[in-house]
Design goal:
The complex is a heterodimer. In chain A, 57% of the residues lie in helices and 18% in strands. A five-stranded antiparallel β-sheet of chain A has the order 2-1-5-4-3. In chain A, strands 7-9-10-12-11 form a five-stranded mixed β-sheet. Chain A starts with a helix and ends in a 5-residue tail after the last strand. Helices cover 40% and strands 22% of the residues of chain B. In chain B, the strands form three sheets. Chain B has a five-stranded parallel β-sheet with strand order 2-1-3-4-5, with helices on both faces. In chain B, strands 6-7-8-9 form a four-stranded antiparallel β-sheet, covered by helices on one side. In chain B, helix 6 crosses helix 7. Classes of the chains: A alpha+beta, B alpha/beta. Chains A and B meet through helix 5, helix 6 and helix 7 of A and helix 8 of B.
C-alpha cells in the first residue's frame, strides 16, 4: 500500500511542469557540456600528439647532425649516451640487414625492416618481468648504406592524460546531472505541495464552503499572484451567489405573494359566489392579479437583460431634455391628482447616445416613485408645495438626469440597498409596487455606462442618473 | 375578420382559435412556418398573427418573405422576446405590430381589430373626424362638441385624435402609450387613465351622451352608444 502510494506520488511529481522543465533544461545543458568536453578532449589530444611528433623530429634532426659529423660510429655512440638518460626517448639503429646496432628498444612488433616516415607502432617493454606491448610514435630515416635510425616516444603518458580528461569530464557531467535531478525534484515538490494545497481548498469550495480562500505565501511569486486573483474571483463569486440567493428569496416572496392572492381569490370565488356577476367580479380580480404578475415578470426580465448588457446596440442620438419633457408630461396629470407639482428644468437640448425607450422607462420609474412616496406626506408649510423637480444638466463630463422630491427621503444607510432588486423598505411594503423600479433604473443607467445615485434633497430624495458625455467620434 | 394564426404551441393556438371564433371571426391555424407561409401566400386573410419562434421557418423570415412577394396582409408578431430591440427587428422585417408574451386576449383582440380595419379602409387621410356631435379638425387643430369649441392641450388633442381615428374600436392603454407618446414600456401606474379621465372631463362634461367609454379589462373606446 505504502509503495503504491509512493509510486503514485512520484509519478505525479514527474508529471509536474516544474519537473519537466528542469529535465528539459538539464538535457540541453548536458548536450552542451558533452560537446565542450569532446572538443576540449580532442584538442588536448591533438596538441599532445603534435608535441610528441615535434620532439621526435627535433631529435632526429640533432642525431642526423651527429651522423654527418662522425658517421654511424658517432651516431651509435651518441644514441648509447642518450639512452642512459632518464625519461629518454626511444632509440633504435639497425643495419641494412635489420641487426640492432644500438638503442633502448628490445624489439619492435613489425616484420622486416623499418620503413621511413612517421607512424605509430607497438614495441615491447619489460614490466614486472613480462614483456608488454607499448604504443609509441616513431620517426624513421634511412641513412646511406641502409642503416636505419628510429626515434620515438612512448604514448602511454598522453594516453593517461587523455583518460584523466575524459574521466573528469564524465564525472562532472554525472555530477551536474545528479544536481539537476535533485533540484528539479525539489522545485517540483515545492510547487506540487502548493498546488496540492490550492486543489484541496478549491475542492472544499466546490463542496459548498465558500468561505475558504487560497493561502498566499507572501513571496509575491507567480503562484501567489495566481492565488490572489483566484481569491478575488472567489470573492466575486461569493458576492454573486449571495446576490442570487437574495434575489431568489425575494422572487419567492414577491412572486408567491401575488400568486397566493390570486389563488385565494379564485378559491373564494368558487366557494362564495352565488351569482354570475359575483363570479365575473372575482374573475376580473384574478385577471388583475395575473396582470400584476406579468408586469413584475417583465420588469425582472428587463433588469436581467439590462444587466447582461450584451444585446444592447449602440443606441441612437437622443435629446435627453426632450425625453425629460415627454415623460414629465406623461406623469403631470398623475402628479396633479396627487396634489403635487411637477417641474421640469431642461431648457437646452442635451444630446446623448442611448435608447429613448429605456431612458424613458427609467425616468418614468423615478417620477412614478417620487409621486408614490411623497404624495401622502402632509405639508404643513403650504409655501413649500409638494413639488417634484425633473432636471437635465451637464456637469463637466457627465450629464445628470435627476428627479428630486420633497417626500420623506431615504435614510442614508438604506440608500445603497434600495437599488437592489425587490428591496422595499419596511415603510413602503404596504404600498403598491414591485420594488423593481429603482433597480431597473439602475440597470438602465449601467447599460448606458452611467450610474444611479441617491442623494439627500433636504428634505426629500434626489435620484441622479449620470451618463457619460457622448464622445465626438 | 378572417384571420390566420401561425403558432406552434397547440394549447395557446386552441385557446386563441376558440376565443376568436366565439367572437364570430373566422380563423385558420398553421402550426409551422412553412405551412403558414403557404396559407398566407395567396393573401386572402385580413390579419396574420405570427408567433416569432416557430419551427421550419422563423416568424420574421416568414413576414419578410411575404413582403417580398408584395403580400401586404397586416401582420402582428407574438413573441416571448419583448425587448426594445426585438420589437424594432420585428417591425423592420415588415410586421405591423408586435405584442410580447404574455399578453391579455383583450389587448391582442384590440390590436388585431385595428390592423384589420386599417387593411379594409383605404389609407386616405381624413382631415376631420366626426362622432355624434363631436368634431375634430386635424388641420386647424380645432375640437368642437355640439358646436362649442373645446380647448385641448396638444397631447390631449393627439389622444382624442387617436381615439376618434379608431372610433368604435377598443384601444388599450399600451396602444395609447405607443401611439400618443411613442413609448412601449409598461407604465407602472395608471398614467394613461388619468390622461383619459382629464380628456373625458373636457369632452363629456355637461353632456348627456357619454362618448369615451371604459372597457373593463381592456381599455377605452370612443363611440356614441355604450354597448
Amino acid at each position: 500500500m505504502q509503495d503504491i502510494h509512493f509510486v503514485k506520488r512520484l509519478g505525479r511529481l514527474f508529471r509536474t511542469t516544474a519537473f519537466k522543465l528542469a529535465i528539459g533544461i538539464l538535457l540541453i545543458f548536458t548536450i552542451f557540456a558533452i560537446t565542450i568536453l569532446v572538443y576540449v578532449g580532442f584538442s588536448a589530444q591533438r596538441l599532445l600528439d603534435e608535441q610528441v611528433s615535434v620532439t621526435v623530429s627535433e631529435e632526429i634532426k640533432g642525431l642526423l647532425g651527429q651522423y654527418n659529423i662522425g658517421g654511424v660510429v658517432r651516431l651509435v655512440r651518441q644514441i648509447e649516451r642518450r639512452s642512459q638518460q632518464p625519461g629518454s626517448s626511444l632509440y633504435l639503429v639497425t643495419s641494412a640487414s635489420g641487426e640492432t646496432l644500438a638503442g633502448n628498444i628490445m624489439s619492435v612488433e613489425s616484420e622486416g625492416l623499418l620503413e621511413a616516415g612517421t607512424y605509430e607502432l607497438f614495441y615491447r617493454v619489460i614490466e614486472d618481468g613480462e614483456p608488454r606491448p607499448h604504443r609509441a610514435l616513431v620517426e624513421t630515416v634511412i641513412l646511406p648504406g641502409g642503416f636505419r635510425l628510429m626515434v620515438g616516444r612512448d604514448l602511454a603518458e598522453t594516453a593517461r592524460f587523455r583518460a584523466v580528461i575524459w574521466r573528469t569530464g564524465g564525472w562532472s557531467i554525472l555530477f551536474v546531472l545528479a544536481l539537476a535531478v535533485t533540484g528539479g525534484v525539489f522545485v517540483a515538490r515545492r510547487v506540487l505541495t502548493r498546488i496540492d494545497q490550492m486543489t484541496e481548498t478549491t475542492r472544499l469550495i466546490m463542496a459548498g464552503d465558500f468561505s475558504g480562500r487560497l493561502t498566499v505565501s507572501g513571496t509575491d511569486d507567480e503562484l501567489d499572484r495566481l492565488a490572489q486573483s483566484l481569491n478575488t474571483m472567489l470573492e466575486r463569486i461569493q458576492e454573486l451567489m449571495k446576490g442570487l440567493k437574495e434575489v431568489s428569496d425575494n422572487i419567492a416572496h414577491d412572486l408567491k405573494t401575488p400568486l397566493t392572492r390570486l389563488r385565494n381569490s379564485a378559491e373564494e370565488a368558487l366557494r362564495n359566489s352565488r351569482s354570475v356577476d359575483d363570479l365575473r367580479l372575482a374573475l376580473d380580480h384574478v385577471i388583475d392579479e395575473a396582470d400584476g404578475l406579468i408586469k413584475l415578470f417583465n420588469a425582472l426580465l428587463m433588469i436581467a437583460r439590462a444587466e447582461a448588457g450584451g444585446a444592447f446596440d449602440r443606441g441612437d442620438n437622443l435629446d435627453l431634455s426632450a425625453i425629460a419633457h415627454d415623460v414629465a408630461e406623461l406623469y403631470e396629470p398623475l402628479a396633479d391628482e396627487a396634489g403635487m407639482k411637477l417641474i421640469v428644468k431642461a431648457n437646452a437640448p442635451i444630446e446623448i447616445r442611448g435608447s429613448r425607450e429605456l431612458l424613458g422607462q427609467a425616468l418614468a420609474n423615478l417620477i412614478d416613485n417620487a409621486i408614490k412616496y411623497s404624495a401622502s406626506r402632509e405639508q404643513e408649510d403650504t409655501h413649500q408645495k409638494n413639488e417634484i423637480t425633473v432636471a437635465v444638466e451637464r456637469k463637466n463630463d457627465v450629464i445628470e438626469l435627476s428627479v428630486a422630491d420633497r417626500g420623506p427621503g431615504i435614510a442614508e444607510e438604506d440608500r445603497g440597498r434600495v437599488l437592489d432588486r425587490f428591496v422595499r423598505l419596511e415603510t413602503s411594503r404596504t404600498r403598491p409596487g414591485s420594488g423593481l423600479g429603482l433597480s431597473l433604473a439602475a440597470a438602465i443607467a449601467r447599460l448606458h455606462n452611467g450610474t444611479l445615485k441617491l442623494e439627500d434633497h433636504a428634505p426629500g430624495l434626489r435620484v441622479v442618473l449620470s451618463l457619460p458625455v457622448m464622445s465626438k467620434t | 375578420m378572417k384571420l390566420l394564426l401561425i403558432e406552434d404551441d397547440a394549447s395557446a393556438a386552441a385557446y386563441l382559435v376558440k376565443a376568436f371564433r366565439e367572437l364570430g371571426h373566422s380563423i385558420d391555424h398553421a402550426s409551422d412556418g412553412l405551412d403558414g407561409y403557404a396559407m398566407a401566400a395567396d393573401g386572402r386573410y385580413d390579419v396574420l398573427i405570427v408567433d416569432r419562434m416557430i419551427p421550419r421557418m422563423d416568424g420574421l423570415a416568414l413576414i419578410r418573405a411575404l413582403r417580398e412577394q408584395a403580400i401586404e396582409t397586416p401582420a402582428l408578431i407574438l413573441s416571448a422576446l419583448g425587448q426594445v430591440d426585438d420589437r424594432v427587428k420585428g417591425l423592420r422585417a415588415g410586421a405591423d405590430d408586435y405584442l410580447p408574451k404574455p399578453y391579455a386576449f383583450s389587448e391582442l383582440l384590440a390590436r388585431v381589430e385595428i390592423l384589420s380595419r386599417r387593411a379594409r379602409i383605404a389609407p386616405t387621410e381624413e382631415t376631420t373626424f366626426r362622432v355624434a356631435d363631436l368634431e375634430l379638425d386635424r388641420l386647424s387643430h380645432r375640437v368642437t362638441r355640439a358646436g362649442v369649441e373645446i380647448d385641448l392641450q396638444p397631447r390631449e388633442f393627439r389622444l382624442l385624435e387617436y381615439l376618434m381615428r379608431h372610433a368604435g374600436q377598443v384601444v388599450t392603454r399600451t396602444m395609447l402609450l405607443e401611439h400618443v407618446w411613442d413609448y412601449h414600456f409598461d407604465p407602472q401606474t395608471n398614467v394613461i387613465d388619468v390622461h383619459v379621465s382629464r380628456l373625458r372631463a373636457k369632452i363629456d362634461k355637461n353632456h348627456t351622451v357619454q362618448l369615451i367609454h371604459t372597457i373593463r379589462g381592456a381599455g377605452y373606446t370612443l363611440r356614441e352608444t355604450s354597448r
